[in-house]
Design a protein that fits this description.
alpha/beta, six-stranded mixed sheet, five-stranded mixed sheet, globular, binds 5'-O-[(R)-(carboxyoxy)(hydroxy)phosphoryl]adenosine, binds zinc ion
């Protein structure tokens, strides 16, 4: 079995995955959303302190599996440096105490492997990764070969939902809040322009759209509930249209038999529906594994274990900004 740890942002999570059949034997996650909500985003130092409490609490519940462990896997990149360090320190201590090897795992590879929890992997695969930190289209040939075809020039898709939620007076994370408001709104009531629609660039940009929404919000003295719903719906429509416009262009150059959406924002049902209509076979992770979790890190770790990608205790590095 592999014990995996995830602490790259504001979710403390540990999983135990059986190597031979990918079975998820244990999975717990403690989210810090409430603690960060009043600040409108994740406060790294606070997140690190909360991981330092939550991770040992979850670990205590995994003791029965210790005799069967073959490796300790941990997210070491990308993410917030002070929170990554919490998971990596725990992984090093466990590796030393139990005398088993360490497997550093890239968080974005983890999101891709969220598709294969308790399943065989399917490659080649086109992937749209939409999270709080990333908006990327990837051509994934294998665990080691993941090419970035497009990424964001500024804000990410999920981050733009978080910021619009804050502008409308709601909390963090904003994704589900905006999606729910949008269900009650008229998506044609405000006409925001789709970013980079006349640009040949294979890239995304959300900062301009965020500013369009800000100007719209500021044009009202006060916002009633229905207007908030209308703004949320109009914003979501354009945020998703930007993704589908660029994806259609990418699909002309790369014809993917299999395409997937992963990452926290892939839980958005409106986005899922729109992508379903432009892809042949759309793969999705179960909703519970879309946002950050250790089960996806454990599943990716099985591949790393087969490839013997072990790392010496002194060599493991925390890389906050690296990509796949
Ligand atoms: O993957 P994730 O849990 O953490 C990162 O690696 O960033 O993604 C969290 C992000 C947040 O920005 C959150 O607002 C966004 O995913 N998100 C959503 C939805 N659910 C979560 N964005 C849009 N619609 C949603 N339903
Ligand atoms: Zn993530």
């Amino acid at each position: 079995m592999i014990l995996s740890i995830e602490s790259s942002c504001d979710d403390s999570s540990i999983a135990i995955t059986r190597i031979k059949d990918f079975k998820l034997l244990f999975h717990k996650k403690i989210s810090q959303e409430l603690e960060h909500s009043k600040y409108g985003g994740v406060v790294p130092e606070l997140a690190a302190r909360l991981h330092a409490k939550a991770l040992p609490y979850i670990l205590e519940q995994t003791r029965e599996f210790f005799p069967y462990l073959k490796a300790i896997a941990v997210t070491n990149e990308p993410g917030l440096s002070v929170t990554l360090v919490e998971g990596v320190s725990m992984a090093k201590a466990l590796s030393l105490a139990l005398n088993i090897p360490l497997l550093p795992i890239n968080h974005l590879k983890g999101h891709i492997y969220s598709l294969f929890i308790e399943k065989q992997e399917i490659f080649p695969l086109g992937v749209l990764l939409v999270s709080g930190g990333h908006t990327q289209v990837l051509e994934v040939s294998s665990y080691d070969k993941m090419d970035v075809l497009a990424s964001t020039l500024d804000d990410s898709f999920g981050e733009s939902f978080d910021k619009v939620s804050k502008m409308l007076g709601f909390g963090y994370p904003g994704g589900a809040i905006i999606e729910n408001l949008a269900k009650k709104g008229d998506e044609d009531s405000f006409s925001f322009t789709v970013p980079l629609s006349n640009s040949p660039k294979m890239a995304f940009s959300y900062s301009g759209l965020k500013n369009q929404v800000r100007l719209c919000v500021e044009s009202f003295e006060s916002l009633d509930e229905q207007t908030k719903c209308n703004i949320a719906a109009s914003f979501q429509k354009v945020a998703v249209a930007h993704l589908t416009q660029k994806l259609k262009k990418i699909f002309k150059a790369h014809s993917f038999q299999n395409f997937a959406i992963v990452g926290g924002a892939s839980a958005n049902l409106y986005l899922r529906e729109k992508l379903q209509s432009i892809t042949k076979t759309l793969h999705l992770a179960p909703l519970e594994f879309c946002s950050d979790n250790a089960a996806m890190i454990g599943r990716a770790a099985i591949k790393a274990y087969e490839k013997k990608l072990f790392c010496k205790l002194d060599d493991i590095r925390v890389n906050p900004r690296v990509l796949v």
